[in-house]
Description:
By secondary structure, the chain is mainly β.
Amino acid sequence: MPSENGKSEILATLLICTLLALSQITGSHDSVMEHESNPVLSVSNGNQTIQGQSFLNFTHPISHSSQVNATWFARVSVLESYGTDLLENRSIGLLDQIDQALGNSDGWLDESEANSFSELVVSSRSWTDSFSGGCCAFDHSSMSVVGSIAVSVNPPEIGPTNRTEGEWGWTESGNLIGTSDGRTLRLIDLPRVGALIEEVPLRVSLPENWEFKFSPMSEIITGSPGAFFVDRSQAPVAYDIRITIDRNMPPLLSATSSPQISSTISLEKSSSFSATCSDNPLEIPRIEWIISKNGTIISSFENNWISVKPSDLNFNHGDIMSVNATCTDFHGATSHWNDNPTVDGISPLWSGKFSVDGIEGGVIENGSQTPILALAGSLITFEVNASDDSSLPVMLELYTNVSEGWRQTGLNEQTFEFTANQGMGINGADMGINQRHMQRTPSEILMVLVVTDDAGNAVLSEWTLTVLDANPPTVIPRLYSNGIEIEYDDKLHEGDVLEINLSHSYDDLDSIGDVSWSVLVDGEEIFVSGPGWSVFEPINLSGLKKGTHNITVKATDSKGNIREEPISISVEPRSGAHIRVVEATLPDDAKIGNSVMLTVLVQNDGSDPAFARVCLSDICGRWTEEPFVATLESGPGQSTIEFQFEIQNDTVEGLYLSWDSASAGTYGDIPIEVSVKSQAGIPTSLIFALLIGILAFLFVWYRNSE
Length: 706
């Protein structure tokens, strides 16, 4: 299998062979010495191998569907070292070819051999078909020779065949006729098959008012539209050259002026006029400008553009300046453009009035300077009225540095509006902490009004608007819990160390040290900044009870602008599990020796869930099925636990609550104390004895009393 490089070499070889074969097939007519497929002239000893020129001249007017007449002439000179295809062994050079093919191979070119070669050349160039003869075809058909082609050969000189400096050549001429078809455009086709005649430039001369229009091979065509040269040696092999010709048409002329095409022109300002003239690709038409006054030529120029200042040409206000542009092509055909503006030497007039947030200022006329002050955020309104003695429209343009490229326009009467805000040189969140804390200068807005009449006369006026401080500080409180920055909606717990840091805050113009601060919690002021306090120092919020708290950070700059930044935080019950026994009760009929049900109410004051159970010594009940936890909404979490056991004595010992909180990572035991009320009865014999004793006491007391 061949390699990839080998495949590429084989492909290239096949392509070259195909092109050579195509060249041989196409060039089978009686042409003189067709050389290798490369059309570029070879070079020998620093001299061109092939020199000369050919001419195709169309001698009569051309019209559609009619006979076309032309003449042909060619003169070719070739170095003797360059072999010919008319004889074998081209590589050995012409002289040896002649000596071997037409002579006796003695190394000497004699007269007989030279004459034989001349006859061969004449025979090869005696063509009747203009296309196969290397000349041309017209409207897709080869032209015919009237009579015959006259060929005159300048043969190689007599002498040895091993010389290399000599030349030979020939001239040929003839009359050609062809036929045009019915189309408007005419076509000339030039063969390019590698014939020797194609290696010299061809000059094509067209009838009057006819010209070159287009060719896909325009890069090898030079000269003028009516007489152009075609260098076929620079064209690809086996690629015919098609040329389109047509009657000449006047060039297309367009022109414009700057500032603009208008009925008026400024007396003291330069106005530019430019023209574009398009025509044949082989020429650059000539453009001529003429400036005249009352029919008298004042000045003329040959250029694509001119710049004119009427006062320099002795024009006055009210004069008519005639501007004419003429474009002339190769054939003398012309196109014209003209303008007749009136010279205007008077500038427009205007007046205006500023308003700040609807409060009108004084009247301003033609550039009078009035200081303008406005609070930041104010709406600036500028009403302008303008007029010109020409009664033509007046252009109004207002430029500001409010933003890049800010511009508003109008005609004659216009109300301009913009908002006055502090600009780029103020403190902002895009700066570093220290940079945003610096003192800044209020912004100044530069305003430029340009009033321009139709002639271009312009009046320019400038003002500076100072933007006063009306913006409150920007408050950026950062919340910290136990030294870690958190979001406002993050969970906070009772007992957490809460702090607010204001270091990221800033004022647009004041230094941070000129800003006063206060903090309110649930409407109660807990902090007021004082001398020496810095925004880098945290503000303590510790001690907040569970619940929702409204915090307000208040900042006041040196101009009294106030910003209140509200913050809402929720404090959850303290973290962890905090368990206690609220109540432990036995039933009223509890007796020693009986089995009773103990009821225990347990409470979790922490925010971490816990489980609990009741134990007696080493005997324990079940854990609570559900965890119990304190929440912000419902308060402490409670659970009721029941535990059944047998009462051994009136004092229950070894009873306790066991709890565990996995999330908090804590657990513990809490003792439970309960007692049993004495329920034992008095013996009946003792009751009877007491009764008898009482009765005896009463009997004795009664006898003694009697």
